[in-house]
Amino acid sequence: MRSMTGFGSGSGNDGKLAVTLEMRAVNQRFLELNIRMPHAYLALEDRLRSGIKAVLKRGKVDVFVTVQDLDPAAPDVRVDHAALGAVKTALQDVNDRFFEGKAVTLGDVTSLTQDWFVQTPPAIDADASW
What is the pLDDT of residues 27-45, one digit of tens each? Predict the structure, then answer.
């Protein structure tokens, strides 16, 4: 890059991930890099920063990285049975005391809280993503 002021973008995909990288640079005496990327890919920030520093020597540079998973893996879904049981017991107690003992359903529990339901996104392999 010869000019310190400019904008550029590029994108690509490998069938699994679609990545778009946008850079905006303005004149500045020293190199100041601001990189914004998805939290799941922050492990790659140092590698990206090093690559940019190898090419650019000065300027205020904003880098925006977006990643779209084209073949998403299913998240790990888990039910905390103890928490679900505690919520159901509490609701049943309230029902017995104040609402003539109607049976508590899963719909009743889910309308109150979903703290018993744990969904963990699949792990990301930073090296494979690079």
Answer: 989 999 999 999 888 889 9
The structural domains of the chain, with segments of one domain joined by +, span 6-69, 76-129
Query: Quick check: 77 and 118 in contact, CB under 8 A?
Result: yes
Per-residue three-class SS string for the chain: CCCCCEEEEEEEECCCEEEEEEEEEECCCCEEEEEECCHHHHHHHHHHHHHHHHHCCCEEEEEEEEEEECCCCCCEEEECHHHHHHHHHHHHHHHHHHCCCCCCCHHHHHHHCCCCEEEECCCCCHHHHC
